[in-house]
Protein 1
Amino acid sequence: MAKCLVAMLTELKEGTLKQVEADGIPICLARLEDGEVFAISDICSHEEVELSDGTLDEDVVECPAHGSCFSVRTGAVAGLPASEPVATYPVTVEDGEIFVEI
């Protein structure tokens, strides 16, 4: 696995999403209200839409196109119409830098 620097923690406020790229892979970063940071595929498994353009409600991201929902913790489907999960990636935060393992 490659550990990629993708963003600074100051660029990602609590309760928000951010699109980044790691080794050419589009990633959706999510920072929960408690400060935890998660990384999932930025591409919805239902349609090729960027999840980072959606909304974050607690630990669930909602796709802006058709409302599919995914857990940012596990990638599991949390709301239809999607039926396939999205990939998740390990995240570490060191000295204010966010790293994603690909």
Protein 2
Amino acid sequence: MDELDRVKIGDDAAILAITSKLQKITMTDLPTIPLWYNGLWAQTNNSVWTNWPSAADGSNHFLPATWRGYWNMTSAQMLLDLKPAEAK
């Protein structure tokens, strides 16, 4: 963090290099201990969009998760995998 603090504003390459190191440290050296299970539920409808997340093989497995109004985890990928429903 001290190294990142010394990077000049606009030096995007240095910022990227240092934050990549920080991410690696966080993912390998710091334990993640969930304090509660919040669950993940979603309701979908195939009338306008299809290919919603499913446990089926070959389907969209990205999760539509939000937390405090923010999309996180793989929500953006889930939206990108949706397909328009066939016109009736």
Protein 3
Amino acid sequence: MDQRSLWERYKKYLCKCPSIGLTIDISKMNFADDFFARMEPEIQKTFKTMDTLESGAIANPDENRMVGHYWLRTPSLAPSPKIRCEIEDTGKAILQFAHDVHSGKIRPQKS
């Protein structure tokens, strides 16, 4: 590939995500120019699956449970107010416990 083609490919495939301070140069990875268009249906299917899981679908049918570890970081994404409150209340209890340990309110039985 000549220098001009490399430069054009670089400009086309440089991925900038300023909201998270990330820039990735994928221009020299080995993929065809139609790769993203071909992958679009799979990408859309994946986004739909993720939305379904994030909204509380059963992800592990053997154990009949949801997967919601991302709700711990953002409780507002939890699929129900009950789950959101449980996450928020637990977080507050953990912070209070840590504060009580650091302040000396909670101490070992023997020092």
